[in-house]
Specification:
The complex is a heterodimer of chains A (about 350) and B (about 325).
Chain A: E1 3-7, H1 8-22, E2 26-30, H2 46-49, E3 54-56, H3 61-73, E4 77-81, H4 92-99, H5 102-105, E5 115-120, H6 135-139, E6 145-147, H7 152-164, E7 169-174, E8 181-185, E9 198-201, E10 206-210, H8 214-227, E11 232-236, E12 239-241, H9 245-255, E13 258-265, H10 270-282, E14 291-295, H11 304-310, H12 314-325, H13 331-337, H14 343-347
Parallel strand pairs in A: 2-3, 2-4, 4-5, 5-7, 6-7, 10-11, 10-13, 13-14
Antiparallel strand pairs in A: 1-8, 6-12, 9-11
Helix pairs in contact in A: 1-7, 3-4, 8-12, 9-10
Chain B: H1 11-36, H2 51-58, E1 66-69, H3 74-79, H4 84-91, E2 115-118, H5 125-139, E3 145-150, H6 157-168, E4 173-179, E5 182-183, E6 186-187, H7 188-191, H8 201-204, E7 208-212, H9 216-231, E8 237-242, H10 260-270, H11 272-282, H12 288-311
Parallel strand pairs in B: 1-2, 1-3, 3-4, 4-8, 7-8
Antiparallel strand pairs in B: 5-6
Classes of the chains: A alpha/beta (about 350), B alpha/beta (about 325).
The structure holds thiamine diphosphate and magnesium ion.
């Protein structure tokens, strides 16, 4: 079996079709799924193949998400389509108090093998209620796994893994990436394990940690930096919870400088968590403070000039990298005085 | 009793209703062309075909009454008296727009006209109008709150919570459901249990009315009754207007969920503006020429508004940081 180029929406449709074929308990529930193959074409071909297992509902998010929970508790593997990530707010009790806690509160009796799928992100002038990146709300909720892929291959591999996973997975996909195209394996068992990051570009001078659509901006920045003689290593986290601290640590022991970039706003964002973990676990390996690149702390405005100003750009990543590169290297002097981090600590992740 | 039969409505008021409907139609058609020319970014939801429903409803309101609007909101706020100049400017993302370019088509609102926002979250407006209702009661005024919503929104839990709360506290609220037969791609006939939305009023012990949403006078009559009840302190009502949108759910909608025949049929047989023009001519209130003048005046006003919007400056990027807080 080969590899061909697919868009993120086709990669998603393929993953869903394969999993629905393989497992009759997999079904999709949400609004306006069938008429146009999903608002982003992400369900193309599915209504014809699985007419009973792709269910259009009334506009009742509270009950849509709750229904996913009830179905998961009774032997199904639902995929809940949230329409826009912004609308998770209308089912917050179901997600935070029910989905995330039922297993724990029941002492491990309950199992919730479900995926809550939510297109997120800004950049299309959809204004404040249709543009948010809300991953940190769920990263901050014990009991949920959180995924945010960039490449079409990871959309396929991670979605399949999330469907097969026995725990609730919040699956974010950036709405500007649906037409983003790349090589995807045809293989029906092409799975990307949850919790594993990927080095998208190797480099020795600085590590840029990112995920979702910001990976694109970071790779752009890395390309420009390379022309100026700075080799940036770019890590696409892919899974945010649990996240791959091991790979970050490995990279930072080499580069000793870190920049974290995400589209969500700065304060209380996931970058703060990564930066804290780097500070706690890798302090002695760092030559510079860890910098974050993120959206400004305002709701996403409508007008393109305002929206562009609020969202982080490749230019902001370049500036952050140039700042961390200004700190002198302490690698040589430090190397002899520092004891090695114990292995057990290094392996801790997410 | 302050009840006025709108069929005995003054000719001046009837003419004003037609003028507002025509203004909305011309405004919306112009938004469609600007969107097609890629001058308007983002999502645009138009109300063409639904003018009688909105104008008939707002006809019953005083300037100090409150409304809460939706993603399909241009008509609501035009009918409540907003200025097309600042609306176009907002749609174009200009500094001079009602929301300084921060809201766009989906969130245009003129709070000085007691429009409490246009909500991009379907069903987000119900609880807000409940708050306006409490506020009216606590401030002991005789204002009324009106929440516009679609057939689709009636399936949100917020609708049912709000109906119950409005009934329990006898709040001065009118729920106006503009049932245009579709929620995005989903037909109301498949998604709304119980056959009607107004029928749900029964469960909350409040009046429910269904009216022909392509007949502006019929809408005005029923909504006037609901508004008068609310103003007299007799509590909330639900009014459902049977209407139809001619354009897609949003501009660019592929509309595979309905046929062109269905749309044409509505346009030919139930167009709210055509119908009302015929009524006004039959009643001898307006001549064909006078009607033409109303259209010409609307076109002139809209073109002036578009020119104002096009010539307006964009916001400075840094202005994105303003307006988050009163006291930053
Ligand atoms: C809570 C929520 N769910 C879903 C959507 C996506 N959405 C926007 S408009 C719409 C259909 C609304 O239908 P209706 O209430 O009948 O109003 P209409 O568009 O027909 O005026 C949907 C599903 C949304 N904006 N908010
Ligand atoms: Mg509708």
């Amino acid at each position: 079996m080969g590899v061909r180029d697919l868009s993120c929406s086709l990669a998603m449709a393929e993953a869903l079709a394969e999993e629905m074929e393989r497992d009759p308990t997999v079904f999709i529930i949400g609004e306006d799924l069938t008429a146009h193959g999903g608002i982003f074409g992400q369900f193309r071909g599915l209504p014809e193949r699985f007419p009973d297992r792709i269910i259009d509902t009334p506009i009742s998010e509270t009950s849509i998400v709750g229904a996913g929970i009830g179905a998961a508790l009774t032997g199904m593997r639902p995929i809940i389509d949230m329409h826009f990530a912004d609308f998770v707010t209308t089912a917050m009790d179901e997600i935070v108090n029910q989905m995330a806690k039922l297993r724990y509160m029941s002492g491990g009796q309950a199992k919730l093998p479900l995926v809550l799928w939510a297109p997120d992100g800004a950049g299309i002038s959809a204004a404040a209620q249709h543009s948010q990146s809300v991953e940190s709300w769920f990263i901050h909720t014990p009991g949920l796994k959180v995924v945010a892929p960039f490449e079409p291959a990871d959309v396929k591999g991670l979605l399949k893994a999330a469907i097969r996973d026995d725990d609730p997975v919040i699956f974010f996909q950036h709405k500007r990436l649906f037409r983003w195209t790349g090589p995807v394996a045809e293989h029906h068992e092409y799975l990307v394990p949850l919790g594993k990051a990927l080095i998208k570009r190797h480099g020795s001078d600085v590590t840029i940690i990112t995920y979702s659509r910001m990976t694109y901006e970071c790779l752009e920045a890395a390309r420009i930096l390379a022309q100026q003689g700075i080799q940036a290593e770019v890590i696409d986290l892919r899974t945010l919870k649990p996240f791959d601290m091991e790979l970050i640590a490995e990279s930072l022991r080499k580069t000793r400088r870190a920049v974290i970039a995400h589209e969500a706003c700065l304060t209380g964002g996931f970058g703060a968590e990564i930066a804290a973990r780097i500070g706690e676990e890798l302090f002695e390996h760092l030559d510079a403070p860890v910098l974050r690149v993120a959206a400004k702390d305002v709701p996403i405005p409508f007008s393109p000039v305002l929206e562009k100003f609020v969202l982080p750009q490749a230019e902001d990543i370049l500036n952050a990298v140039r700042t961390v590169m200004k700190y002198p290297s302490r690698a040589v002097t430090r190397a002899c005085s520092i004891t090695k981090t114990p292995r057990s600590k290094r392996r801790r992740s997410g | 009793m302050a009840y006025i039969d709108p069929y005995a409505m003054s000719p001046e008021k009837k003419i004003a209703l037609l003028e507002t409907m025509v203004l909305i139609r011309v405004f919306e058609e112009r938004v469609a062309t600007l969107f097609a020319q890629q001058l308007i970014p983002g999502f645009v939801h138009l109300s063409i075909g639904q003018e009688a429903s909105t104008v008939g409803s707002c006809a019953a309101l005083r300037p100090d009454d409150y409304i809460v609007s939706t993603h399909r909101g241009h008509a609501h706020i035009l009918a409540k008296g907003a200025d097309p100049k600042y609306m176009f400017a907002e749609c174009l993302g200009k500094k001079t727009g009602y929301c300084k370019g921060k809201g766009g088509s989906m969130h245009i609102a003129d709070f000085s006209k007691n429009i409490l926002g246009a909500n991009g979250v379907v069903g987000g407006g119900f609880p807000i109008i409940i708050g306006a209702g409490f506020s009216i009661k606590l401030r002991k005024t005789d204002q009324v709150g009106m929440v516009f919503f679609g057939d689709g929104a009636s399936n949100r839990g917020t609708f049912h919570e709000a109906c119950n709360m409005a009934a329990v506290f006898k709040l001065p609220i009118v729920f106006v459901c503009e049932n245009n037969m579709y929620a995005s791609t989903s037909p109301a006939s498949k998604m709304v249990a119980g056959g009607s939305i107004a029928g749900r009023a029964h469960a909350y012990g409040i009046p429910g009315f269904i009216t022909d949403g392509s007949n502006v006078l019929a809408v005005a009559e029923v909504v006037q009754e609901a508004v008068d009840r609310a103003r007299r302190g007799e509590g909330p009502s639900i009014v459902e207007t049977e209407t139809y949108r001619y354009k897609g759910h949003f501009e660019g909608d592929k509309q595979k969920y309905r046929t062109q025949d269905e749309i044409q049929n509505y346009r030919m047989t139930r167009d709210p503006i055509d119908r009302f023009e015929r009524v006004l001519q039959e009643e001898g209130i307006l001549t064909k020429t006078a009607i033409k003048e109303i259209w010409a005046a609307a076109h002139t006003r809209i073109e002036e508004a578009v020119r104002f919007a096009m010539e307006s400056p964009l916001p400075e990027p840094e202005e994105a940081l303003d307006d988050v807080f009163v006291n930053p």
